[in-house]
Amino acid sequence: MGIYAQHAPIYAAAGLPVFPVDVRNKKPAVKNWQNATPRQSRGWASSARLAANDGLGIVMGKPSGITEIDVDAVGDAWVTAALERFGQTPVVIRTASGKAKLWYRHNGEGRHVRPFNGLPIDVLGGGFTIAPPSFREDLGASYAFRTGGIEDVCILPTIKDGALSEGFTRAPEAVQRGERNDSLWRYCMSQARHCDDVEALIDVALTWTSAFPEPLPPQEAEACARSAWGYETTGRNYLGLKKPQLTKGDKIMDDLLDAPRALVLLQMFQRWHRTRPFFAIAPRAMSEAGTPPWPRRQIEHARDVLMDRGYIVEVIPPRRGVSAGHYRLADEMPKSAHNHNTFPPSHIGAVSLVEVSQ
């Protein structure tokens, strides 16, 4: 017997309606699964055709009394964050791909795929989920209870008050014909930063569009995902952000793009003097030593640019006859008027110190 035939009677005995599923493709293996009952679960388990199935699907919402928080990200930190937001629960499940599911007592929640801004979390108060110990052959791994089990379903708490309201976005069930492609593309743009590769984003897109009243054809959903992934991988995905996702170094580069020698000089100071209270800048000695390999006046000009724009602070000015002055790195990066929406160059190239000096 397969996993479904072995474990369906156990779920049925606990009053939970289960049905056989194709675990790899996350599709029910039977029709009318939405109306599954414990009695029907036992009937499917006794079917010769379905007995070898290795997947257990369980109806979410009112039929089972369960709402699932599906954490579609790997790592204990995500589980901890979900528990803090939605409340503690005795039942935490590890999926075959190492992600997590949290079970709560159903309290009227619907089915919402990625309803929270920036969080890889689904709320399944409807539809179905895959339950332990379903086995995914392509991964060679099973779904398993990390904590709790079937016997704890009767003591599940409800989701913490207010947890479902903060950051909630439009549900896919509300997306109508004529707005499907645009809605899916925007959704893919918001989820791309949480995906490891384009295949993962395509899977997210197919899951989300499956909840549309009229789902998009798979090839159209894939096209939306690939388009969004193109924006993400070329640094042009600013959708849904108040500011682009840029590092401190990116912003400094934007601010000093018109003064490349000042940018290089600042990087040298940050590398060698970031932990020092102050340091000397001796343009003549630096030029003679070739660090950097520029004329003295160019080093002086780059130093003055950094002072004028607030990246370094003069502690002791150079005196007549003494070329070195004392400086320190600014405590805070100066605020830039640049909009930081700088598009990448149309060609790939590298600029060396030698090229800058010419």
Please, could you describe this protein's structure?
The protein is an alpha+beta fold and 358 residues long. It has three domains: 3-155, no CATH class; 172-233; 248-329, Arc Repressor Mutant, subunit A, CATH 1.10.10. The protein is 33% helix and 16% strand. The protein is built from eleven helices and 15 strands. The chain has helices at 3-13, 38-45, 76-86, 180-191, 198-209, 218-233, 248-255, 260-273, 283-289, 296-308, 353-357, and strands at 18-22, 27-28, 56-59, 66-71, 92-94, 100-105, 111-112, 121-124, 128-131, 135-136, 141-142, 144-147, 279-281, 312-316, 325-329. The strands form four sheets. The chain has a six-stranded antiparallel beta sheet with strand order 7-8-4-6-5-12, with helices on one face. It has a four-stranded antiparallel beta sheet with strand order 2-1-3-9. A hairpin with a 4-residue loop joins β10 (135-136) and β11. α9 (283-289) packs across α10. The longest helix is centred in the middle third of the chain and has 16 residues, at 218-233. The chain is elongated, with a radius of gyration of 29 Å. The termini are far apart. Residues 337-358 have low confidence and may be disordered. This is DNA primase/polymerase bifunctional N-terminal domain-containing protein. Residues 8-156 form the DNA primase/polymerase bifunctional N-terminal domain. InterPro entries: DNA_primase/pol_bifunc_N.
